[in-house]
Amino acid sequence: MSPSPLLHVHAVRKQFGKQVTAAGVDLQVANGEFFTMLGPSGSGKSTILRMIAGLEHPDSGRILINGQDVTDLPPWRRDLGMVFQQYANFPHMTVAQNIAYGLRRRKLDREAVRKRVSELLDLVSLPGFEERPVTRLSGGEQQRVAIARALAPRPRLLLLDEPLSALDEKIRREMQAQLKDIQRVTGTAFVYVTHDQEEALTMSDRVAVLNWGHLVQVDEPHALFRHPRTKFVATFFRGSNVVEGKLVGQGRSSIFECSAFRVALPELPSKFAHPPAVAIRGEDLRINGHPSPEDITFDAVLERVVYRGVYTDYQLRLVDGQVVTASATSGQNLPAGQKVQVAVRPEGITPLQAEPA
Ligand SMILES: Nc1ncnc2c1ncn2[C@@H]1O[C@H](COP(=O)(O)OP(=O)(O)OP(=O)(O)O)[C@@H](O)[C@H]1O
Ligand SMILES: [Mg+2]
Fold it and tell me: Which residues form the ABC transporter domain (predicted)?
């Protein structure tokens, strides 16, 4: 991270009654970065975003934008734009009037406004839409107008709270790609809120996973997906298995042991999960293959085979009754009830640490 990030949220706390919605949140977003907050309903995503926006005041902690402490500044003095789930356009205005509204604080002449509106409509792929009444547009189009309006004054930071969740699946996917393009072309930093893991993984430079007001893990999508840090993160991403066991050896050495296998962990997290547990992605579990010498192998009983299109899931019961799911693209014709050999590379086994308290 560069020495002076565009956005610095420092030790921010917020509580509503007994409900802690931000439990000392620290995060930094760089210029031009696509940063996503991902978490289940009620985890505090919107509250944190609203504090960055200035719509909510933290109980303690500071918010800095461009090195300036903006904690006590109103939203319009923070050099940022906002887009919400509900298209917040003015219904009685045309598309051009809506976008120009975002420019009202800039003293621009009519021609400059016209030019900027046209530029923004090109950017959001709605060229020539100036005179349309905004209410006649489809949901996806209205949201693009809202994005154009928010970007009109060229903020360095755009905050987006589930902007695509009201759209149907197909349009949502198209808009994901389009938003990512807009972000890249304009170089605006995005802080994006979603509860959709796929959206977070496909669009973001970094993702912060939130649970009960805690940032549980902040990582690049690949690292987050491959190496979840806690059980919460592992189970949040479909397809990860959590296997419980114990740590064995002298002085809590780094050997993890469960009923099926033993594995030496290269490093132990400072606060290991209790009970000790590791995460393994379903795609990393291989059934009846040709294990290499460094692979960890174990026996399991194949309980169920579930065809899922691209993947086939194999539910495997370990000796102590724990169930894990292996996923493979090439469906093997294996009857349920039989014993199989399972192999996994040691790098595919991620030690889990305790959830933040
Ligand atoms: N103004 C408020 N007054 C009281 N409680 C609030 C207020 N705003 C948020 N909360 C509570 O804080 C918690 C977090 O809410 P928040 O809206 O930040 O979650 P979220 O992660 O955005 O959830 P969702 O995915 O459902 O939008 C919730 O329990 C919510 O009820
Ligand atoms: Mg929300």
Answer: 7-237
